[in-house]
Structure formats: C-alpha cells, structure tokens
Amino acid sequence: MSGMDKRAALVWLIAVASAIGLWVLMTGGPALAEEMLVEICVEEGSYLNLRAGPGLDYDVEMELGPGNRLIVLETRGEWALVVWDKLAGLSDPPASWANTQYLKEVQEKCAY
C-alpha cells in the first residue's frame, strides 16, 4: 500500500468513526426493544424518578416507590423507556425514562 493509499484509508476511517460517534451522541445509540416486566428496587422510603428523556437533564414526570412494576419498551445505555404496569391497559399509556440501575427483572429478588 502506498503512502497516499494509507492516508486515504486513514481519512476514510476517521470520517466513519466520526459519523458513528455523532450518531451515538445525537440518538443515544441503538434502542433495543425489551418488552419485559421489571420491579423498582430502591430503599424503603425512597423513590425512582421517571423522566421525560434518557438522562438527568430531563424533567421528572413521576416518582414511584419500591415494589412498583414497570414494562420496559426499549433501552438506551443506562436508561429504559418504561410504562407503569398499572397504566398499561390504557389505549395510549404515558411512557417515561428510568435509570436501569434501579430496575430488576421480576424473577430476580431486590437487594432491599
């Protein structure tokens, strides 16, 4: 491979990596459909904030305590788009974002 070919390949590689990085930054990365039931695992007396978007910069839309169950619609990194199971029967239930650190699959036992 000549020096010019190596430079062209390097420029192409940097352009592709930059485009992927920009896509991840703008979209939060790939969203994976989960459709699973989870339980909120926070200490008694604490609440999990359900937010308008996947991050701490978004407004809190609702607070739910330990033991409440959510249906996960999709995940993006450490965040999950969820619907409170008590509202799942509505024709268009409101969805919010929750940090996955505080969610456990219903089959698992909460640490608290």
Summarize the SSE layout with pairings.
Layout: H1 3-27, E1 32-40, E2 48-51, E3 60-64, E4 69-76, E5 79-84, E6 96-99, E7 103-105
Antiparallel strand pairs: 1-4, 1-7, 2-3, 4-5, 5-6
The counted number of beta strands is 7
Whole-Å distance between the termini? 60 Å
Low-confidence stretches: 29-33
Please, what is the average pLDDT?
Answer: 80
Strand content: 25-35%
Order of strands side by side in the largest beta sheet?
Answer: 6-5-4-1-7
Short structural summary:
It is built from 1 helix and 7 strands; from the N terminus they run αβββββββ.
What does this structure look like?
By secondary structure, the protein is α+β, with helices and mostly antiparallel strands. 22% of the residues lie in helices and 35% in strands. The strands form 2 sheets. It has a 5-stranded antiparallel beta sheet, with no helix packed on it. The chain has a two-stranded antiparallel sheet with strand order 2-3. It has one helix at 3-27, and strands spanning 32-40, 48-51, 60-64, 69-76, 79-84, 96-99, 103-105. It contains 1 helix and 7 strands, in the order αβββββββ. It starts with a helix and ends in a 7-residue tail after the last strand.
